[in-house]
Amino acid sequence: MAWRWWPLLVWAAAGVLVTVSVLLEWRRHRAAQPEPGTRRLLAPSRVFGRIPLHAGHFQDRVVEVGALERALGGNGQAALVALPGSRGAGKTQLAAAYARRCDAAGFDLVAWINAESGPVTGLAGLARVRGLGDEDDPPEQLAAAAVRLLESDDRARRLVVFDNVDDPDALAGFLPARGTAKVIITSNRQEFTTMPGITTVPVGMFTQAEGLRFLREATGLADTGGAVTLGVELGWLPLGLAQAAAYIARNRLSYRQYLTVLAGQDLDETLRRQAGTDHPGVLQATTLSLAGLGRDDPPGDASRLLAVLAVLSPDGISRRLLATGAAAGALGLTGGLGHALDILATTSLITLGGILGDTGGGDGVVVSVHRLTARVIRHQADNAETTLADGVTAATGLLDALTDDLPLAQVALRRAELDELVGHILALRGHTEHPPPLLLIQCAWAGDALHEAGDLTRAVPVLTHTLTDRLRVLGADHPDTLASRSNLAGAYQQAGRLAEAIDLYNAVLADSERVLGIDHPDTMISRNNLANAYRAAGRLAEAIALFRKVFADSERVLGPDHPQTLFSGNQLAGVYRTAGRLAEATALFGKVLADRERVLGPDHPDTLNSRHFLALAYESAGRLAEAIDLHTAVLADRLRVLGPDHPWTLTSRHFLAGAYRQVGRLAEAIDLYNAVLADRLRLLGPDHPWTLATRHELAGAYRQIGRLDEAIDLYNAVLADSERVLGPDHPITSTVREDLATARTAESDG
Are the beta carbons of 661 and 26 closer than 8 angstroms? Predict the structure, then answer.
């Protein structure tokens, strides 16, 4: 990944300035959340989640299917049924077959939830799709709403599958206690056999008859004796048989020949324990399938791709990401992605799950490696000394290319892609004790991207761990380590942990001056960041002094027309405005605007930012008519240049609504706030700080117009979300709490 210091830092700092201005205006205007009628409801879907595709040569498993049908009972009967069994036994395929039958039978709901990391995320997604609760409700509350749907006694036919449950205790509180829903749980954990209220249908290995039928269909061989010997060697585990049959068919071997080759594979006892199975022959079969890839694919595309997939998130990677031009260049597959995937799928080393088309009409297929197979691959790579490192390196290059295709300015708008990439980055980091520098860059990107998306709960730990890694790997004085410390300080500031942010910024500045020099551009950025933290903490005299120094140093070192110099001037004007020195603020905003128009042009985003902040200065000075005219003009230009969904376009609409409030045009303000809120919910999500700001402003407009009941309801909702997202002691949370108290007082006085 190629890095140039000043464009990234200037853009990032510009985002900080916009955010600070949003939050300062938020506290000055006072307002909050959407009225119930504004929520965007999604049309109910009969099928939720990604039901795994039908496995080749699927066996009906007569015993298990019969037991499952008896346990689930007939229509109108509730049922909780667990399918415990070893990895690779076919539990998921058995549940998926039943789910497809329910779909074909016209069930009102067939929900498939991957519950390996707990059921909350999947249930919350079901609630959102079904329009339950409010979109800004916390996931646990939405999950509870989904459970209430499953508990409904309304004659609807519903099935929910919790697949791959790893922690029975985490699931226990989210199982319906009444109603008529049918629930299937798949797990390799045996605790379900003793949990009250749950009927267990153990899923073991294929019976000999099922295994022989499978081998005959998959290989076309009629040698029953050889098939029995092979089945016994593999413990009749469906996964092992599938891999063995694929290898036999592709290499035109007899069962005896395959067994001879299989006997030459040797896996130690440690691998048997890691794989979580009592059938070492299955592990040998996996090893043989991996070894056979070289003959099936001489260029080695399939093997290289499999090594990458084995170290990514176990939930799999979207095929559309693998198919991008950036990914193709990083993977270097000479025969193309489709050919490599075909070989891996044919040999049963990967699974193609998900759906053929997503809601937008794109490719919704997910490529995943069975967890047992991935463990075998990683174990073998450990023994091969360099192979695992090669896989980590290749996966890091892939993620580097994919994150390059997702600019930080876009992460809040492409949240599903962000979450998937973060999952892959963190999984990859977990597979190496000595992360290479490029992987640490990806970890830093993950933290910065979560910060940019407003997900501070996840951002701070990721940034903290990345800083720890960089201190150990690169040393305290490396520029990347200094950048990590600065980025963590920024997350602290956004989270309201201002004392920690200021302490860390001070330390970074001291080290930057020592290591890079007092006039290095990165040192000036560190000085600017510290000044911003002083401003946020209300230490305005210190902020003004430091901003002045940054502005003067930028003019001296970089020149008066350098983008960073112009940015520094805009920052100084902003702190003048915060301090009430409005004449100086307006004059300096005007000067920077003129310079930016001359140097960058009238339509450059930085120029539009200058006009936006000049409009805010007019507002602060009471020049409201001029402010509204300028806000309106900036909005029109941002719509034209950036588009309607750009975050800064939404910012212009938000502040224009605020100006309408100030001049008493409350109906227009409320309409505009509601429109902005709908778009921010759609684009940024309910927990983003800017979404919270618009909800708060809307509540203030309701209070101002006398709609106190609606205002109080909105204030209550925003307060709950602010406490959850930002913390109970965050300055914004305190502001919302004060506004709620004021609205309640007005209600009692009325």
Answer: no
Residues 224 and 230: their CA atoms lie apart, in Å, by: 10
CB 489 within 8 A of CB 537: no
Residue type, 398: L
Q: How many CB atoms lie within 10 A of CB 66?
A: 12
Rounded to the nearest angstrom, the gap between the alpha carbon of residue 267 and the centroid of all alpha carbons in its chain is 37
Would you say the pTM of this structure is higher than 0.70?
A: no
Q: Tokens 């936006």 map to which residue?
A: 612
| Per-residue buried b or exposed e for 431-443, using 16+ beta carbons within 10 Å of the residue's own CB | bbeebeeebbbbb
Q: Which helix (H) or strand (E) holds 110?
A: strand 109-114
DSSP for 345-414, written as a single string: HHTTSSEEEEESS-TTSS-EEEEE--HHHHHHHHHHHHHTSSHHHHHHHHHHHHHHHHHHTS-GGGTTTS
What residue type is assigned to position 432 of the chain? T
User: Buried (b) or exposed (e) across 275-313, using 16+ Cβ within 10 A?
Assistant: bebebbbbbbbbbbbbebbeebbeeebbbbbbbbbbbbb
Read off the tokens for 149.
């749907």
Q: Cα separation of 86 and 13, whole Å?
A: 52
90: alpha, beta or left? (left if phi > 0; alpha if psi -120 to 50) = left
CB 258 within 8 A of CB 230: yes
Residue type, 656: L
Query: Cα(747)–Cα(411) distance, rounded to whole angstroms?
Result: 41
Judge contact between 402 and 326, C-beta under 8 A. Answer: yes
pLDDT digits (tens, 9 = 90+) for 96-142: 989 988 988 889 999 999 888 889 989 998 998 888 887 778 889 99
The identity of residue 703, as a single letter, is: R
Q: What is the distance, to the nearest Å, from the Cα of residue 194 to the centroid of all Cα atoms in its chain?
A: 35
- Residue 448 CA: distances (Å) to CA of 144, 173, 311, 401, 508: 31, 34, 22, 17, 17
- Mean pLDDT of all residues in the chain? 84
Instruction: Pull the structure tokens for residue 687.
Output: 């927990």
What distance in Å separates the CA atoms of residue 215 and residue 247, rounded to the nearest whole number? 11
What are residue 160's DSSP bridge partners?
A: 111, 183
Least confidently predicted of 238-247, 519-528, 736-745: 238-247
Task: Return the number of other C-beta atoms located less than 10 Å from residue 43's C-beta.
Answer: 7
- Identify the CATH homologous superfamily for domain 47-200: P-loop containing nucleotide triphosphate hydrolases (3.40.50.300)
Q: Which two tokens stand for residue 96?
A: 């998926």
The set of residues, in sequence order, having a beta carbon less than 8 Å from that of 139 and lying 6+ positions away, is 120, 121, 124
Pick the closest to residue 625 from 661, 583, 663, 675 (CA basis): 663
594-635 pLDDT, tens digit each: 999 999 999 999 999 999 999 999 999 999 999 999 999 999
What distances in angstroms separate CA 496 from CA 62, 170, 469, 647, one per listed residue? 60, 31, 25, 22
End-to-end Cα, the chain, rounded Å: 61
Whole-angstrom Cα Rg for the chain? 30
Mean pLDDT, rounded, for 145-165: 89
Alpha carbons 591 and 175: distance in angstroms, whole number = 63
Mean of pLDDT values over 558-563: 94
Cα torsion through 473, 477, 480, 484, rounded to 10: 90
